[in-house]
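Supplementary Methods. Inverse-folding protocol.

Structures were first reduced to a discrete structure-token string of length 179. This string, shown here, constituted the complete conditioning input.
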């Protein structure tokens, strides 16, 4: 069974603002330029209440603790590149550097749009609120959904490893598969 991977939003969790690389799409499923300047920088959104640093952020792209990236690698997920991220807390000037921007390679057209709940924001920009997947063979790792690249799907094997790690701030939603 495939799962939707998201961050479990807890009341005390930090939110991020991207502060560099605005000209790069981290959700396109394509390799990033070889000459990409690193690290990719973010700051904690001081307009939000939370300051606790979670296991992962799903917005503006997948940004995860190094330990989560290693968990993905340990279960055989290999279709991603990880880049150093630097997060600044503007209130304390603390620099947080144990996160990676996870660039998932490849998009998979797997949504059954007739059964999913979705809407278009504009030409070529669809948001899917309730995902129903096609009954076709899907990758056994993780992928971004071509119909809504903000959505990250993981296989049952990957989801089980994440659940076994006991990460209370990672949300895995089982997805319906129907042709």
């Amino acid at each position: 069974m495939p799962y939707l991977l998201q961050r479990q939003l807890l009341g005390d969790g930090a939110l991020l603002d991207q502060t560099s690389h605005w000209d790069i799409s981290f959700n396109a499923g394509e390799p990033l330029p070889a000459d990409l300047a690193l690290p990719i920088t973010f700051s904690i959104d001081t307009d939000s209440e939370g300051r606790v640093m979670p296991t992962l952020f799903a917005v503006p792209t997948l940004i995860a603790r190094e330990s989560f990236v290693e968990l993905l690698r340990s279960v055989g997920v290999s279709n991603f590149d990880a880049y150093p991220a630097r997060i600044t807390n503007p209130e304390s000037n603390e620099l947080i550097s144990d996160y990676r921007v996870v660039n998932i390679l490849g998009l998979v057209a797997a949504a059954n749009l007739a059964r999913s709940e979705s809407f278009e924001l504009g030409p070529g920009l669809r948001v899917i609120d309730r995902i129903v997947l096609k009954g076709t063979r899907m990758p056994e790792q993780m992928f971004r959904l071509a119909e809504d690249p903000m959505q990250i799907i993981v296989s049952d094997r990957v989801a089980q490893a994440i659940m076994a790690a006991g990460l209370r701030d990672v949300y895995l939603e089982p997805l319906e598969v129907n042709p």
